[in-house]
Design brief:
Blueprint: H1 15-26, H2 63-66, H3 87-99, H4 107-112, H5 153-164, H6 167-174, H7 179-182, H8 194-206, H9 208-217, H10 226-241, E1 253-257, H11 266-279, E2 284-288, H12 294-298, H13 310-316, E3 325-326, E4 333-336, H14 342-350, H15 358-368, E5 375-379, H16 386-394, E6 397-403, H17 412-425, E7 431-440, H18 445-457, E8 462-468, H19 471-475, H20 483-486, H21 491-508
Parallel strand pairs: 1-5, 1-6, 2-4, 2-5, 6-7, 7-8
Antiparallel strand pairs: 3-4
Helix pairs in contact: 3-17, 5-10, 6-8, 9-10, 10-21, 11-21, 13-14, 15-16
The protein binds adenosine-5'-diphosphate (ADP) and magnesium ion.
Length: 512
């Protein structure tokens, strides 16, 4: 059993917990600003509503769990009609939110401490490969003090060649025109990429022997040279992963990417997973529900004040497809952008009819009009207000990115409580289906301990893949791109591709 790192079911930090916090602070490493907040004494159960797949009848809230801290009152089991949403529920959520952790993440600070003295283990740094053979003059990492190993030439050359000659990419380009590109932006007709999908599958199958040969040709590296071994492993994974067509989900999946902490990687995860799914043959829509509009920026989507946006959908009832824009760097990826107007939507929504279900209805209307996406990912703001409630009502799955940092788990019980409230009152199918560990730093024991702890509590939900802390990932948005196109050979892109593949496999198997 690992050291307790602040798992929220512990009302008070244990002495070990404190010692570890003290140690981490003394060593100057981990995110100090995410320190213990008002919500830290939560006693919410760790198993709240995360089993998934429960029948609507089971949506009856266990009041002792949900109202454990006294600020959420639930007294009417079985009220599941979304149109009869109780104001109580929303108020309870708002109360709960007030107790929660609002945007106290540490995006910048934590990033700057990559190679700081917090390095607790002698493990090699996670490797981030330089993309050989790319014109990268303007994309040099800024002041990155981490190891940026370019590794043995034979490995990276092989990979890059493989990347450039991917039959799949050609197959996509050569395939009969996808209706996506000729019709109204964001208006994919059902089944219009069947040909594409077939071509991808064939191309990937045809390349099997080549891939195997390439993998076999990679030098065997022993444990004495861990860096080279890691490079070789990465090369193998990349060769096997790139170009694999992902299976379509049994039914369209709508996932809300939520975590009330800021700076934990919600937006980064949303856009990169979405891009990875789209690059692998699926039709994906990102709904940017954060007034900051970071997801829109990262996808290179115009979102200045006059652009039709998700605000118009929520407040004015504009059809969703009227605001959707195609992403120019990834085919079959679309985005409903957020503009600054959205900042006022929390207030404006309060007085509107069916304020919690407006996004759900907009998505349903688009689907009824015959336009469906394989995946819809909703990027939430770092709070639990009406925007996040709309996202949770519109989705059937919650996808939680967790940063592998100290206090990462704090506030999680509050999030789980809110999910439970929404499930009980507004959206019975809602469940936590996926958890992704992000910003993993293989050099620190802390990252490993956080990962171990999360896996222990959520064995079913946590993806095997962890996303490493990667300079390329954080640079990509400033170029209006995801890391999947900005540097598709980087370890960050590989991790997101792998994570998306896991998600897709689970979705196709009906396990999500
Ligand atoms: P959130 O949406 O939860 O607020 P973001 O996705 O915006 O979080 O991430 C916060 C910051 O951390 C951003 O600057 C982003 O570029 C950076 N970041 C996210 N994931 C990683 C990663 N794996 N490696 C390095 N930086 C990351
Ligand atoms: Mg964000």
């Amino acid at each position: 059993m690992s050291t307790n790192l602040g798992w929220p079911s512990e009302p008070e930090p244990s002495p070990e917990h404190r010692r570890l916090g003290w140690l981490a602070r003394m060593l100057g490493g981990v995110s100090r600003e995410t320190g213990q907040g008002p919500g830290s004494g939560d006693t919410g159960g760790s198993g709240l509503g995360v089993g998934g797949g429960e029948a609507p009848e089971a949506a009856v809230v266990d009041a002792t769990l949900v109202a454990g801290d006294g600020d959420a009152e639930i007294d009417t089991p079985g009220r599941t009609d979304v149109d009869r949403a109780e104001p109580d529920a929303v108020e309870a959520l708002a109360d709960a939110d007030a107790d929660g952790d609002h945007g106290r993440g540490d995006p910048g600070g934590a990033r700057g401490s990559d190679a700081g003295p917090e390095v607790l283990s002698s493990e090699p740094a996670p490797v981030e490969e330089e993309p050989d053979g790319r014109d990268n003059a303007s994309r040099e990492p800024v002041d990155d003090d981490r190891t940026e190993a370019s590794g043995p030439d034979d490995l990276t050359d092989d990979e890059t060649d493989d990347e450039e000659e991917r039959p799949v990419d050609n197959a996509v380009d050569d395939a009969p025109d996808n209706t996506l590109s000729t019709q109204e932006p964001g208006v994919p007709a059902a089944g219009d990429n069947v040909v594409d999908e077939e071509a991808r599958r064939r191309a990937y199958a045809d390349g099997h022997a080549d891939r195997e040969a390439l993998v076999a040709a990679l030098p065997t590296v022993d444990d004495d040279t861990p860096l080279a071994r890691e490079l070789a492993d990465n090369a193998r994974r990349r060769i096997q992963l790139t170009g694999r067509p992902f299976p379509k989900p049994a039914a369209p999946r709508v996932l809300t990417v939520a975590n009330q902490k800021g700076g934990v990687g919600k937006t980064t995860t949303t856009v990169n997973v979405a891009a990875a799914l789209a690059q692998s043959g699926l039709k994906v829509l990102v709904i940017d529900l954060d007034p900051q509009g970071n997801a829109s920026t990262a996808l290179g989507i115009d979102h200045h004040a006059e652009v039709p946006s998700i605000y118009d959908v929520l407040v004015d009832g504009t059809p969703l497809l009227d605001v959707v824009q195609p992403c120019t760097t990834v085919e079959s990826l679309f985005c409903a952008p957020a503009t600054i107007d959205l900042a006022g939507a929390e207030i404006e929504l309060v007085s509107l009819v069916a304020r919690e279900t407006r996004l759900q209805k907009a998505i349903a209307a688009a689907s009824e009009a015959g336009h469906s996406y394989d995946y819809i990912l909703i990027d939430c703001p770092p709070s639990l207000g009406l925007l996040t409630v709309n996202a949770m009502v519109a989705a059937s799955e919650v996808f939680i990115p967790i940063q592998c940092e100290y206090y990462a788990l704090e506030g999680l019980s509050q999030l789980l409580k809110n999910i439970e409230l929404v499930r009980a009152h507004l959206n019975p199918p809602l469940h936590v289906s996926t958890i992704l560990l992000t910003m993993y730093d293989g050099r620190t024991r802390l990252s490993a301990q956080v990962a171990e702890e999360v896996r222990e509590h959520f064995p079913e939900q946590v993806l095997r893949t962890t996303v490493p802390r990667s300079v390329r990932i954080s640079e990509a948005p400033s170029f209006g791109e995801t890391v999947m196109t900005y540097d598709s050979t980087s370890s960050g892109a590989l991790a997101y591709l792998e994570a998306a593949g896991e998600m897709a496999d689970r979705g196709a198997a009906g396990a999500a």
